[in-house]
UniProtKB/TrEMBL annotation:
Recorded GO MF terms: hydrolase activity
Organism of provenance: Immersiella caudata
Name assigned to this protein: Alpha/Beta hydrolase protein
Keywords annotated in UniProt: Hydrolase
UniProt-listed InterPro entries: AB_hydrolase_1, AB_hydrolase_fold
Keyword Secreted set for record: no
Domain AB hydrolase-1: 28-152
Keyword rRNA-binding recorded: no
Pfam family, one: Abhydrolase_1
SUPFAM superfamilies hit by this protein: alpha/beta-Hydrolases
Amino acid sequence: MSLGLDLTRRIVHNEGCDLHCWFQGNGPLITFVPGGNGHGRQFYPIMAALSDRFTCVTFDRRQMSASKVNTPKKLSPPQQARDIRAVIQAMGFTKSIVFGSSSGGIFSLQFAHDFPNMADHVIAHEAPLITLLPDASELVEWFLHLMELYETQGIEQTAAEFSSRLLGYDDEGVPPIARPEPENRQNFWDNEFPILLGYTPNMWRLRENKTSIGVMRGVRCRDAFFARSVDEQAQVLGCPMFLVPGHHQGFEAETEQFLPHFLRMLDTLEKRRSEA
């Protein structure tokens, strides 16, 4: 699949961080929010595929890749939501479709909670809200174990154990993905993972606000905790849930197969809103 990239770079200053953004296309705005890997270039393939009908923008999240800060701080999901708002406003839009994957899905839901009038539609792809799961107690204790492992054994052993549950990446024939800078992984374990361990946006308020939300889980992820969490999100929110091609980054590795499901989700959300 040809990327067809024609990206423009923009730097958006927000709360002490220069957020490095890339955009292309024309039409309604879609904002793509990275997860724990932090970098926006994972969305370049799907942005290229959509730019004939949408304005597509992504960014490196604060303290990740190009969006560096002088003094790193612990993750604040509400601040991440304000960063999304700043990017949308800098693009000259008052609202946006927002697609976030993994912890980017959490930040997208937080954005919808904090700025409902700016959320056109929100699509959360495998947001790992583990506290919603029936086995949440076991998962919280495993996450605490990973934190202890990181403090005592270091990043390599911790990342290896964590990655063992990221199913689908090693499936036969699956193309490789863009790798984040090493400092992104360090920032994730130092400053983000401890906060994400139990953080869940106010899902009931999202439902009460009747925010237009759809959720997705990748077929290659099988029974991974972040995929199973999607089923619970759909039940709590009463929103559409799609089983889509690919693994945890299927939108990047298998863009051509993923794209029709993305567009079908947007159509579904539009129809639900028109019928409401």
